[in-house]
From TrEMBL, chains A, B:
Residues 92-176 form the Transcription regulator PadR C-terminal domain. It holds the Pfam family Vir_act_alpha_C. Signal peptide: none annotated. PANTHER family: TRANSCRIPTIONAL REGULATOR YQJI, TRANSCRIPTIONAL REGULATORY PROTEIN. It comes from Kribbella pratensis. This is PadR family transcriptional regulator.
Amino acid sequence: MALEHAILVSLTERAGSGYELARRFDRSIGYFWPATHQQIYRVLRRMDEAGWVKHTEIGQDGRPDKKVYRVAAAGRAELSRWLAEPEDPAVLRDGLGVKLRGASLGSVELVLKEIERHRAEHATRLEVYRGIQKRDFPKPSGLRGRELHQYLVLRGGVRAEESFVAWCDEVIDALRKDNK
Amino acid sequence: MALEHAILVSLTERAGSGYELARRFDRSIGYFWPATHQQIYRVLRRMDEAGWVKHTEIGQDGRPDKKVYRVAAAGRAELSRWLAEPEDPAVLRDGLGVKLRGASLGSVELVLKEIERHRAEHATRLEVYRGIQKRDFPKPSGLRGRELHQYLVLRGGVRAEESFVAWCDEVIDALRKDNK
DNA sequence: GCTACCTATGCAACCAGTTGCACTGCACCT
DNA sequence: AGGTGCAGTGCAACTGGTTGCATAGGTAGC
């Protein structure tokens, strides 16, 4: 598992509350490791009990109190232990493939519409990534170290979405021709 | 959820036992919707109780008896209901991205090795897909209907692996240059 | 004044996927 | 004779992720 580790990476970059982490996951890390606030709160509590992180309660006026977490020594140790450990390659799991495979058992028309819808969503995500790329890494050739790594992860997202959109186009085209 | 539906699609193509389904998932559908035999047995029993599939016990000599499942009317109904229903776009979830993002907190050397290892595994998977493509769809331009759909799903796998391997190459190259 | 949304944390129940194990019997290799 | 691997089904326990709900005060728009 790696939600623990994703949180540790994020908290090492900058301390934050569960809520803030959930926002960060929505915007960046979560593109590669999605997580809801429920999951994040639960894991934070677990890691707190295990001594991987420590929290400081911060009273705010006008807003609810918050707990700001920062990585403890044990957390840093666990993180480098995990970084050195081999990771199982991720598997593809997309219901759209199953739907396409079964298209002829239902309405090919509808499956085609569905693929067009997915194409649009992935194209939007791609635009978001490209926006981040332009804004945060306008000159990638000069990047080094941590920033380079962040950039390369983003590149992974861009490539995945590009390839998905291209596949959708291939499918849409082929299904339309088959229908004629 | 869609394991039910993945199984229904597979069983509609050809009736089979839980064991046979598990083999099929290992070889084809499972590239896009992985499942272990445990999961398959459990879901088959559930679908049997719900009347979506029916089984016939087949005694074999020299081998254990098996239950051959085939899709019942209720299963066909459920399948076309699901096919017409919108599906949430799949999310990317790859620990390797988290590792790369956190690389500078551990050993960049080791993360680089890890990425090379993943590259090799995905390249192997890509070769498997290309082999299937060559063997089963030597002339894709003439394909229609169900065969076309199967081919297009395979194309999705090929594209995903190609793009992953290309990303690995980009990362390996960039990390090596950064290290110099 | 009402609705809606944001910040902030959390419980409880549920569902899906993973892992480890158990049993049988044949075939093949060493 | 013993180990490995294949065919075949299955239980039990666990882990991780999802969904629905609760609470509470502040701000912004109609």
